Amino acid sequence: MKFFKKSEKSVSLNSCVVWLALTAVHSYNAVPRRGPGSTTSEGHLRNEFWAPVLSNCFKLDGLKFLSVWELEHLIPGNAGKGSSKCDFAAATLDAGGIPVPFFIVEFEVGGFATHKDTVVCSSEAVFELGQLIGKLNVTKAELGELQIFMGLVNDTKITIDVITAEYDLESDMIFYVRHPAVASFDLSNADTNILETLNLLVFIQTVVIPKGKDIQTLLNCRSGPSSISNLLPKLPPMASKSSQSKTMFTPLNKRAK
């Protein structure tokens, strides 16, 4: 199936992926039938709406990627103290069979402007990017080729950030940089959700998946001891925790000075 954007450039999408995604979006009922006063849950949103939209994008058309729900990040510690699970991840495998995610997603329902898992997802992406750099024999100039995408889902809207690593010559160190809101897709409006779903699928097909393929190629061809991992910043040994905001904006007395 070909989808034409305003630029008139055609993008080929798998018909099965499109059909499953559009069916889920069109038929989604936000409130499960559990009696009067029932509200949607994160699990309901994830299973009924986002699973058909996201999972199949990375599994069809011969793509050798994994669609993993609740991927365990190998951050030091144990469950409840240090380890961390993301809600969804698209990943490739390294030589040892360990998943290397390049797209990490966290969900919430009824959130505010700041997603409850913004810090959590950022820490997961930064950790995985550092692990990836440590597995590759890449130069400082090639760091820009490595990108980890973050998907922050609030109900039926997804905002995508990107985490990159940049070398600073003056300090002779590598810094992690978060690029917020490089793309955003609101699938809640009945008048535009079909188009927004297609736009999301096109973004995954043309932006996210190619970066995943780049990482896959580097793992196959450039695996080896890293010569620049010693320049990476030292990360906390414990995983970050979700922080649910009770207000739209951070009160003045709680803002960082």
Highlighted features:
disordered N terminus, 4 helices, single chain, alpha+beta
Show the helix and strand layout.
Layout: E1 2-4, E2 10-12, H1 15-27, H2 42-54, E3 66-73, E4 84-93, E5 99-108, H3 118-135, E6 147-154, E7 157-168, E8 173-186, H4 193-221
Parallel strand pairs: 5-6
Antiparallel strand pairs: 1-2, 3-4, 4-5, 6-7, 7-8
Helix pairs in contact: 1-2, 1-4
Question: What would you say this structure looks like, in words?
Answer:
By secondary structure, the chain is of the alpha+beta class. The chain has a domain of 179 residues. A 6-stranded mixed sheet has the order 3-4-5-6-7-8. Helix 1 packs antiparallel against helix 2 and helix 1 packs across helix 4. It is globular and about 60 Å long. The N terminus is likely disordered.
Which strand order spans the largest sheet, edge to edge or round the barrel?
A: 3-4-5-6-7-8
Percent in helix? 25-40%
The biggest beta sheet is recorded as: 6 strands, mixed
Unreliable residue runs: 2-6
What is the averaged pLDDT score?
85
Q: How large is the count of helical segments?
A: 4
Biased composition (Polar residues): 240-250
Region (Disordered): 236-257
State the gist of this model.
With 257 residues, the chain is α+β, with helices and mostly antiparallel strands. The protein is built from four helices and eight strands; from the N terminus they run E-E-H-H-E-E-E-H-E-E-E-H.
